Amino acid sequence: MQNTATPNEKTLNILHLSDLHREPGNPISNKVLLSTLMRDRDNYTSNEDPRIPAPNFVIVSGDIVQGVKHDTADAKVLLKRQYDEATTFLNTVADEFVDGDKDRVVIVPGNHDVSDEVFRRSTKRREVHPDARRALVGQLFRPNSKFRWSWEEFALYEIDDPTVYDERLTAFCEFYEAFYEGKRHYGKESTRQLDFFDYPDYGIAVVGFSSCYNNDLLNRQGAIHPDCIAEADTWLRDISLSREPIRVAVWHHNTEGSPTASDYMDSEILQNLIDIGFSLGFHGHQHRPAFLDIKFRHVQERRMTVISAGTLCGGAAFRHGRAYNIIEIDPTARSGRLHLREMQNDKLDMPIFGPRSLPPNRTSFIDFTFDSPPQPFARLDRTTMLLNNAQTLYNTGEFQAAADILAPLAINDADPLARRLLLECYKQLHDVSAVVDNFDPPEGPAETIALMDALWELGLRPRLAEVLKLPVVCGATDSSVIEMRNKYAVKVRI
Hints:
Blueprint: E1 12-17, H1 30-46, E2 57-61, H2 75-97, E3 105-108, H3 116-121, E4 123-126, H4 133-140, E5 147-150, E6 155-159, H5 162-165, H6 170-179, E7 194-199, E8 204-209, H7 226-239, E9 246-250, H8 268-275, E10 280-283, E11 290-297, E12 301-308, E13 323-330, E14 335-343, E15 353-355, E16 365-369, H9 382-395, H10 399-412, H11 416-429, H12 432-439, H13 444-457, H14 461-468, H15 471-474, H16 479-491
Parallel strand pairs: 1-2, 2-3, 8-9, 9-10, 10-12
Antiparallel strand pairs: 1-13, 4-6, 5-6, 7-8, 11-12, 13-14, 14-15, 14-16
């Protein structure tokens, strides 16, 4: 196992895998695939120019398994075997590339993770009567339609059990929970199909979205449920009360396609992601690498840098081989470097990965910059919002939670209201050590009295004697401070 980077390093280095399509019948086994990835890492970290840092994060942007058609015998059993193989592979990836820290592995589902067997159980076939054709066609192409057309059978289907339909990602959800050893969960309901990864030490926050809302084998379009985008917005707003991380989104589907294709996500969804402040996006699905800068202007112009990975184990797009990405990200400088790693040979069961340029670029890497986190709208301002939250916690008796919010404002920002309320929290908690740690030297009568009491209670007599000689104490005009000064002057014999 190779040691990876620590949170103290300047950049984070992402191993971006996509479209694994794991299944026992794939020409390349887990053992061989892992060997080739590790051998390639040895090359790009040691032998190539420029050298690439070893990854310390992993993003897997969907299509974990190949999937099983509904009319296959033992479809559930075969799907479970595929996920077992994927679990074995990703467990070893976590061990080898991020020292087994699965919180640094972000996984999202793809359209191949949608169970066709479950989807078909949620539908029934509808006869199309001649006098109802026009009405049915109108309903077929409505957003969120419950009707599906099968060109293969030349037949119309209707989703008559929405509860079963919402279980299309159940196998993925079970795999997800097992991979994260019960510490993370993925919602089966389409309104809850996302997960949050917060990395304050690295200055980023990642949201893993499902872009399989209403997706199935008879409706191949990609989409993210609006409720998931709204929930991500709420989570990011909460984080931005105390810091401004780079916002990163991960999903599966690409956002453009040929005129005859429909198997991609509406690009307007990217506008929503840009609008709530995402600066970077990672996806897969199209089986070819890509780099895009997507701009959107509403109140202010913002852009989102979007990076696509090729397929690791599926059929590659025209003029491309199986591939993956390494991305270096510097959150402080708002800059990055994309490295494309592609198969250099034609032996699918024993690939050799190496550098390749991404046209029209001629070098083996692309340098890029990305937008800073958005400035919050009318922060209220930020300090006021935090003070309001802390006051609410204080009023409900949650003194430690209030203190955790107030301490940075009181100490780092020297906000007088925050200092006053923080002192009251420590009094309620009877935390005399915290009083000494945060209010020495004191400012004002209340802090002075509290500090003198705390120093006496902790037995810090020499420091108490020094505090009694401070101008704020010996020159005090407040009667309460004078009384406490005289009391402790006798006790320490000044």
